[in-house]
Specification:
about 180 residues, alpha+beta, 8 strands, about 30% helix
């Protein structure tokens, strides 16, 4: 078989790259995972890319940990990054990948948790908020029941539905609902 001239191979390679916008062979490494938050108590906003492909951004992790601090005490705890993936996937499943998440409650110190528990706020004694594995949220434009149902469909942790307070608890603990 005759050998093809090198210029034909180069032309075909250039054509292939042009047709794929230069992404031929690219992987999830290029995918940016973004979360946007509004904290209902501190009134602060955070817009952060927390992951690129399979790699979590350590600086973004620090930002999110500080943002989701116990706003009553200022204490910060390192969050389980699986929770960020859960939030991202939840928004995608709702068809609102760029939506801002209203944060009702992030991390709670054991002291804050006990105070809320003993003062009738319906807080669990061993809440995953104390391990930075849970968050209470709303998504503007999405009903609380729709948010709950989407979280339940993901089947990736606990889902609590608080209709009267209009928020949903999600966590990366064992799968359960209340």
């Amino acid at each position: 078989m005759a050998q093809r001239p090198r210029w034909i191979l180069l032309l075909l390679t250039a054509l292939l790259l042009a047709l794929t916008d230069g992404t031929a062979g690219s992987t999830a490494v290029d995918t940016a995972y973004r979360l946007r938050f509004f904290h209902t108590h501190t009134r602060q906003r955070l817009d952060v890319v927390y992951r690129h492909g399979d790699d979590y951004d350590p600086k973004a992790q620090v930002q999110i940990n500080e943002y989701l601090r116990d706003y009553r005490t200022g204490d910060i705890h390192e969050y389980d990054p699986r929770l960020f993936d859960l939030l991202h996937d939840l928004l995608v499943s709702l068809g609102h990948p760029g939506a801002e998440i209203d944060v009702v409650c992030g991390y709670r110190t054991p002291r804050t948790n006990e105070y809320l528990r003993t003062h009738g706020h319906g807080v669990a004694r061993h809440s995953l908020h104390m391990q930075a594995m849970a968050i209470d949220i709303r998504v503007p434009g999405v009903s609380t029941s729709e948010l709950r149902d989407a979280a339940l469909r993901l089947h990736r942790g606990g889902v609590g539905y608080y209709a009267k307070s209009a928020f949903v608890h999600v966590d990366v603990g064992r799968v359960r609902r209340w």
